[in-house]
Design a protein that fits this description.
This protein is an all-beta fold and 191 residues long. 0% of the residues lie in helices and 41% in strands. The chain contains no helices and 15 strands. The strands form four sheets. It has a four-stranded antiparallel beta sheet, with no helix packed on it. It has a four-stranded antiparallel beta sheet with strand order 5-6-7-8, with no helix packed on it. A hairpin with a 4-residue loop joins β6 and β7. The chain starts with 24 loop residues before the first strand and ends with a strand.
Length: 191
Amino acid sequence: EDLGQIVRPPRPGDGSGLEAGWVWPVGIVCDPEERLIVSDESDHSITVLTREGEEIARWGEYGSQPGQLDRPAHMAIDDEGHLLVVDTMNHRVQRFTVQGEYVDGFGRQGNGPGELNMPWGIALDAEGCIYVGDWRNDRVQKFSPSYEPLLSVGSSGEGEGELNRPAGVTVDEHGDIYVADRGNDRVVLFD
């Protein structure tokens, strides 16, 4: 019955209440406890909300040290209930508790196996493997649950099997990888 409800939490310190909203919300995910988690790419923050839209927590600090964020984008929840956050401008993925405590992370800037260049999308499969839309490298990389690089699909271009700025990624129960190929205005399937 709440179709179309608008949720805009207050921004820290601005005193303007619910009308302020986020600066640039990008990623959104629900955790097993039905909390809504939103990343704000411009504010370098993560907001945790109840299903009804009440703010539970807001965390994030701009920077490049472990636990700091620079343009957090899409997110995923692992089987332990941790939040995996694509930290775009730090060229990595970081894992946090929903309360914002840093757990660990992986990735560094580059174009070799396991390296990332402005990653944006993320998904997990049933085995806990992590798929990252590696935006500037025009590929999707698959990592083991312990962050070892396992597979890379896609290359720069507009032909079959090629990508141009992969944004979103998801994996179905058969292991097929679907990629929102932003620069080519299409969805690409890797099976």
